[in-house]
Design goal:
Structural class: alpha/beta
Strand content: 15-25%
Shape: globular
Distance between the termini: 17 Å
Number of helices: 11
Order of helices and strands: HEEEHEHEHEHEHHEHEHHEH
Strand order of the largest sheet: 1-4-5-6-7-8-9-10
Number of strands: 10
Radius of gyration: 18 Å
């Protein structure tokens, strides 16, 4: 009876798997703060992509982890056609073709030696306009490598318009943009920084949003849509379900939510201690995100959850 009258239904096609591929390793490396999640080799990433397809997951979002010695102030490995992220995009597309929507994180933080999402000026501040030039180049090489969707996540002003123009200039109108529209300066990113080997010093409060504010998100939403976003995202998901609901009510484009590393780690840690029922907690958090208005959910449990649905 409960199943018959349920108002909110999760489906495997709602789910997107974030995945990390690391250069220079011979076997997958488990992320200590995210038990069950790995930095993949190129081969294990292809296997994970196939498993996602078989489970019915809709997409995979790729993050590259380069060698430390390749990081520099401009994040040049992020725009190198032979950089780890571009190589991984080609690998996954060759493995699964169009059976899985292949998405790429469009940001410089994994590739810079300072760990920020953009190029710094002489005073150590993120230079918005110089960063946009790098994002344009990054969008083009990711499209050439096979990305169906690019996800500009750096929260630079004007990034969606610049990326759309860059893609159109090379005739890639078919590549969609998933805008990280409401990305908050959150305490829950900690495990992710381990996952990507972040070199961050300081914080990102000058370009990520204040957790106390909601109107700011709707202003960002309007700008992203005007600049050509095909889909929009709220990140993190769980602590910002109110923002997710407002965004979903305001737009006629697909809405994504990213259940981030800290959300994952809390459930896994509590479950390991026997404090909560792990499987029920996973499904309850995902259902809550869907109920708040998400059409797609990026979650590290994507393949596992899809198999259970």
């Amino acid at each position: 009876m409960r199943r018959m009258v349920a108002e909110t239904r999760l489906h495997p096609a709602d789910l997107i798997l974030p995945a990390f591929v690391r250069e220079g390793i011979d076997s997958p490396v488990e992320i200590s703060s995210m038990p069950g999640v790995f930095q993949h080799t190129r081969d294990s990433l292809k296997k994970a992509a196939v498993e996602a397809v078989e489970a019915g997951v809709s997409g995979i979002m790729l993050f590259g982890v380069p060698l430390d010695e390749k990081k520099d102030g401009a994040g040049t490995d992020g725009t190198d056609p032979d950089g780890i992220l571009q190589v991984a995009l080609r690998d996954v597309r060759a493995e699964v073709g169009d059976d899985l929507i292949v998405m790429s994180d469009l940001c410089l933080d994994e590739f810079t030696d300072h760990g920020h999402c953009g190029v710094l000026d002489g005073q150590g501040r993120v230079d918005n306009d110089a960063t946009l030039e790098r994002y344009a180049e990054m969008a083009q090489v990711q499209a050439d490598a096979g990305a169906h969707v690019v996800g500009p996540s750096g929260m630079m002003d004007g990034q969606i318009g610049v990326v759309r123009d860059a893609l159109d200039q090379i005739g890639r109108e078919d590549v969609a943009i998933l805008a990280y529209t409401a990305k908050y300066s959150s305490a829950f990113y900690g495990p992710f920084r381990e996952a990507v080997g972040s070199s961050l010093r300081g914080d990102r409060k000058t370009y990520q949003q204040d957790p106390a504010n909601s109107r700011e998100s709707l202003r960002e939403l309007a700008l992203d849509l005007e600049e050509g976003a095909d889909m929009v995202m709220v990140k993190p998901a769980g602590p910002y379900l109110d923002i997710l609901a407002k965004v979903a009510e305001s737009v006629d484009v697909p809405v994504a939510a990213y259940q981030i590393s800290g959300e994952y780690a809390m459930v896994e840690a509590a479950a390991q201690r026997g404090w909560i029922e792990r499987d029920r907690a996973i499904m309850e958090t995902l259902t809550g995100i869907k109920r708040a208005g998400a059409n797609m959910i990026l979650t590290y449990w994507a393949t596992e959850a899809a198999r259970q649905l």
